[in-house]
Amino acid sequence: MLFKTRFHEPIRRGEITCTVRIWQRPHVTTGGRYAFGSGSIEVGRIQEIGFESLTPALARRCGFSSLVDLLKIAKHGPGERVFLIDFRYRDTPIERAPRTAPSANELDELVLKLDGMDRRSAKPWTREVLQLIADHPGTRATDLAAQTGRERDEFKRDVRKLKTLGLTISLEVGYELSPRGKRVLAADRRRSVKHRRTPD
């Protein structure tokens, strides 16, 4: 969950513990933790409210200077649904997948793991999903899944498998490849080219 810089210190001091977002759908979940500087934000509750519930008092409670200020900042894209999100700041960071570049041996091991995941599935999917995320970072899982002809929940389960290997990073909306994921995808392409070569 992203906040403008002017909200950061009040959030760290515990002076702001809620916010409003105007989205097409929720982008956070109750109990979810999201990176926030050197710490994290933990969502305690998210509830959908009507526009009539947006008042100057609520705006001030969320750290906005006015209701107009809230409406200018809280609206994201074409969304028309209003969400009130209660949260708390934690001074401990969330654990992320490894983002360091793997060694040559680690690259080989990761490629073999992807091969194994593909063999255990009805059809190969790992490279397709990695390439899709590489080509469309920050795109909703629903839209990415539609490009593969799969259901969103099935697609998200597979992305979580790749995240466990440290190959993807979850964003507020969508995903991106980690440095490790980019290296693995590049190494896999080189391997594919090498295997396609024929002797002179």
Automatic annotation (TrEMBL):
<protein>
    <recommendedName>
        <fullName>ASCH domain-containing protein</fullName>
    </recommendedName>
</protein>
<dbReference type="InterPro" id="IPR036390">
    <property type="entry name" value="WH_DNA-bd_sf"/>
</dbReference>
<dbReference type="InterPro" id="IPR015947">
    <property type="entry name" value="PUA-like_sf"/>
</dbReference>
